[in-house]
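The following block was generated as part of the benchmark described in Methods. Ligand: NAP.
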Amino acid sequence: MPPTDRPRRALVTGASSGIGAATVRRLRADGWDVVATARRADRLEALAAETGAVPVVADVTKDDDVAALAEHVLATGGLDALVNNAGGALGLDPVADADLEQWRTMYELNVLGTLRVTQALLPTLRERGGDVLVLTSTAALDPYVGGAGYTGVKAAEQMLATTLRWELAGEPVRVIQVAPGAVATEEFSLVRFGGDAERAAAVYQGYEPLVADDVADVIAFALGRPPHVNVDLLVVRPRAQVNNWTTARRD
Ligand SMILES: NC(=O)c1ccc[n+]([C@@H]2O[C@H](COP(=O)([O-])OP(=O)(O)OC[C@H]3O[C@@H](n4cnc5c(N)ncnc54)[C@H](OP(=O)(O)O)[C@@H]3O)[C@@H](O)[C@H]2O)c1
């Protein structure tokens, strides 16, 4: 929320690649103090050396990791904005054949991970005022064939964000949802398709997808609004992708 005389401080989850890393870079460039978290220490260290963000290794699916992360944040200056970005998709299988373990992992990471981190940091945000931003997806807004596992978890995150906003009515906490369409990040589709680089690359062929900086830009915009303005839901898509199942490709 609004600047006092000190820099605002953000925690960005999933900061070791893609949208999270771009958001760390953007917020640092905008003058924020940033705590960057993910599981891969080497990537966080490189990002920290580049940007001056503070790296903290944590797995958002683990209670102890998130408790230690919250403890670190509280002990080192508290928080003005939590960017819940860690997440992802696994598989593109029809419901009839969907892999239970992949669905379980998606729920653990996207839904319960976001809940766990939000619960851990919410007390300090309620106390001094601050923002909870949840990175969902256009997958939260509409189904698509093969997408039920991922659309389900992103829709659950959307419900979490909206419900939390309503429950905090009158308190100095903004709850913001950013829902991007296709973003060509280096790992999202690679992870989704189990390391199949050709299949991952095909997702972004024949049109101009969003890039991570495009999403970092709208995150910075939403967090930068004056305190009486709450960006409830910001949907951002590639121009060519008019909905979850129609992308105008060149060939
Ligand atoms: N790319 C898209 O098309 C797109 C579109 C709409 C929404 N989104 C959403 O945007 C967010 C970021 O996507 P992206 O494209 O930047 O994906 P990405 O490049 O695959 O990054 C995912 C991040 O999440 C972290 N992560 C994964 N599992 C974790 C765990 N258990 N604990 C902590 N961190 C974990 C990863 O780091 P470590 O592996 O180091 O932990 C990585 O930093 C996700 O929530 C995704 O669902 C993506």
